[in-house]
Amino acid sequence: MNEYIPAVHRTMYFIGVTTKKSSIMKVFPLWADHLNLDAEIKGFDFEPHANPELYREAVQFIKNDPLSLGALVTTHKIDLLKASRDMFTNLGQYAELLGEISSISKQGDNLWGHAKDPITSGLSLEAIVDGGYWQNTHADLYLLGAGGSSLALTLYLINKRKTNGDTPDKILISNRSEARLTEMKKIHAAVGTGGINFEYYLCPTPEENDLLVTKLKPGSMIVNATGLGKDRPGSPLTDKVIFPENGIIWDFNYRGNLVFLEQARNQADGRSLKVEDGWVYFIHGWTRVVAEVFHIDIPTSGQDFDILSNLASSTRL
Known about the structure:
317 residues, alpha/beta, Rossmann fold, six-stranded mixed sheet
């Protein structure tokens, strides 16, 4: 059970599943000191798809407690907003569109909810992929999982495509259940795809995901956006999968039993793969929400951002 004790210092919260295991518990004090925030961080843990009243209790506490300034939300982004939407004075554009929030902040007496993933996933992607990559390689993007983080990345790429930015021509998305695929199709239809060809696949088993991998062009990117390896054990692929030659393999997770990442690293030399974990996503995700909660400017690149990134990296074993 989470204890809701009035904060005696400026406090930011982390609403997740296993928050004590997150690197942010070591990173935040370093950032707070560097940024002169005079603040601390605390975690609230819930089982996935928890009772809506539990989410409401947490949001109500943050809203009413003067020194509780806001929170970053993972895993519970959709469920929390469904349970407590009436408590928010304002929602950002992406929060309205996606029906989820990853950031809770205050502006005076107003409680704000923002969905930051379309921004942070895009910043992370650009840090991994070289400029002009998709145009030069004509490679595909395969997203394993149709949840919020996967949808957010597609929205970033759709917006980029509409401004003539470099994006994949084809994006494949697979999911174990139909509901999330249907929801993604509806959102894509509402916003328009900008000319990107989306293919949606119902794949209840890892073997079916393996089969889609065989259809990818050389150089294609495969993203594990399922949460498998972090919140739940396992991988969306089997050990028999053959990754595309010269591919980029990206796991949104950076901690846990990272089976997907291990599968890719085992083939990295033989298939000339570039393998990335979720650390860069972690940095961008947290810095965007910290900036929102404390109403400060944190750049997304350059010397000041590099200092924060280096401070975070100093905590990794």
